[in-house]
# Entry
Amino acid sequence: MGVLLGYRLFQLLMLPLVGAAASAAAPLPGCRTRCGEVDVPYPFGIGPNCSREGFSLDCNTTTGGHEKLFVFNVEIVNISLPLGQARMLNAISWQCYNVSTNSIDYNTWSLNLINTPYRFSDDLNKFTVIGCDTLANIGDFESADSYQSGCVSTCHNEASLVNSSSCSGIGCCQTSIPKDLTYYEVWFDSNFNSSSIWNFSDCSYAVLLEANRFEFLTSYITTTQFRYNNDGTAPLVVDWAIGNETCEVAQRNKTSYACISEHSECLNSSNGPGYLCNCSRGYHGNPYVAHGCQDIDECSDNHRYPCHGICQNLPGSYKCFCPPGTYGDALNGTCTQQQKLQSSAKMAVGKESFFPP
# Structure
């Protein structure tokens, strides 16, 4: 077997996520809310007493002088509170045929998010394998059911790639992952390698990545473009959640319950245990901090909240009226002018109604 050159995150390095307690009910004054180009909203935080327990992140300055956000040694490029998701940069595993030594060099990756708020998104990610004679496997040997899967990517020769424009098995293969996956490792089947096709494709790649951000190019087979596109990484989406309790259970303990803002609500996680907080309809902001959910002024955003008349903002909603002298549906722009009745007709009606003979 070849020498394993990958990076590994071990469970002992993970911070515990305790659903029944929080290290900070809200960030202390002076806590950073941004690292480089990435916003860091609570319950995430940078530094002591700036995050909910388990949500602490590091803001490091790279060699080029740029600040980047990390959880352990994995870079985070985006955090979404409403979606309960974060986007990371995941390392690409690879194996290449070494002509000078007539052997296979490889570098494989494992990622351990056990005992953290994160779990790999089963909806948005796919295990992706690129190569012409490759069988790569993904597995979770930390769980009792020992999840394992694999993907085979083949192509007979360089000419067979001409009509290959999608990841459908010729030069590229994708497979789904299960829910509540928090650990995986990648390994290549030694019976599949590029020793016989090295003259046009000497490397194979495997990575769990965000599927809708990936476009297969045939140049990935014949060059190192895929590996070096983004410093050997690819985007990966993780779902995150608070603790491991349902909303019903979490709401019983007000000291640890995370949805503390007025006009906020609790949603059970759709990927594993735990829950999320969202601002109620008509409000936006951060439901994890006091007074974090603020009323949306719908009247200031006519594109998202259309009103073809007179707009009145209300707490959590708004009303839209037709202008004076018109009637109809101002939301859809169907206000029409009211027709004036002739004064003679009004007088005639008035006589019949109030002065009978």
About this structure: The longest strand covers residues 133-140. Confidence is low (pLDDT under 50) at residues 1-24, 341-357.
